[in-house]
Batch of 3 targets.
Target 1
Amino acid sequence: TNRAYDVFVKNIETGVVTRASTNKDGSEANGASFGGTFSADGTKVLLSSLATNLSLSDENGTQDVFVKDLLTGEILRVSSDDKGSAANGLSDGYGLSADGQQILFTSDATNLVLNDGNRASDVFISRFLINSGHNRVHNDFYRPRDVLYFYLCCP
């Protein structure tokens, strides 16, 4: 009903189909969403979205990267700096570690790390933790040289 692309998850045992591109209260995204990479245990899904209502204060006007917890309904924007400020450029998700705590994504943003002046899209690996009771994401970015290690160590 939102007239946009969405990300859906189908439980192959029960046949139940659930829309993953929703905010915490279950409201559908107000913009297109793409992707759908799962954590190994199937509890988290990585998606990219142009929607502005999936997280609070999403005013950057560009595509962001999110992780949706399919058990709790929590959805967290990963394409933000270590203080929670949204990326100032387009971001796209590519991979999710087995435990769902490390995200591989690219971004055109210049505000995710200090001194990003190369005027090119960069590759990031974000490790994040949900601070209990605060619903905050703390990003700790790896530099691009660690990308190969990510794929080798964390299927």
Target 2
Amino acid sequence: VALYVRCSTEEQATEGLSIEGQRSVLHAYCKVKGLEIVEEFVDEGRSGRLAGRPEFQRMIATAKGRQRPWDAILVIKWERFARSVEDAAAYKSVLRNRCGVELVAVQQPSEDTATGRLVGSLQVFFVGFGAALKGLDNQHMHSRTPAVSASFARP
């Protein structure tokens, strides 16, 4: 299997999503399941909203190659793979349908059925939706100047 780990901020690192924290969870999972780790892809300081992450793109290119040394990619959560619903759907489809590569979120397992794929897609959707809301909230907070009504102002 291949592992993909990504951490974009210091805040995430302190919330248990550090590169080493993710690696530890994935290595333990592989040990329990008897899976051999063949390759690791690490994007540190890269946002999941963007698909142009160097290691992510290298992983996708490797998956598309004829000499691919693995048939599954493990992440701890779907949001580590992608935070954009569109990117997640497109890349998951390419990996599964064109490359024959399974994508597994070890802390958010879903069955390989239509229902399981729906649940996985919904998890990605909610992550992307939350990120979009957070971005809008931050944008809104920085674009507004607080106004104080004259009737509430104290002399």
Target 3
Amino acid sequence: GGGAASLPGPGGGGGNYGGGAEDGTPPGFNGLGGNVYGGDFTQKLLLGSGGGGAMGCYAGRCAWTGEGSPGARGGGIVAVFSNIIDNRGEIKAGGNDNTNPAISVYGGAGSGGSLMVKTNSFLNQGAISANGGLSSNGIFGRGGNGGAGRTSITP
């Protein structure tokens, strides 16, 4: 997962195999983005990792909750196996955003999960994604965006 802030500041985004996550950005003492992880996509599907929590201070009290937000959840695992697929909607394994407007400092967003489609005939008129989540700006800086997940479409 993403690194939590050790002093008042935003958390880092969650990492994943598809791409590393962003660090939280100053002016706070930001958490670091999670590392790229995982191996051969054909061997195992991995959940996305959560973002790092943010620490905020209010009336001299510093904590990972209240003024600071926890990191957002990572994406799940989606596996679709069918002879024929006609996608007219969305197939997603994305990480959660961390964009609550009621707080002053944001935790990191979750990274994308894993999405695998195996089919002999695929008609796609929709969307397929395993994107990392987004974070927002707060008084102490912006939490890191989550790293990209991974997708695979094979016969």
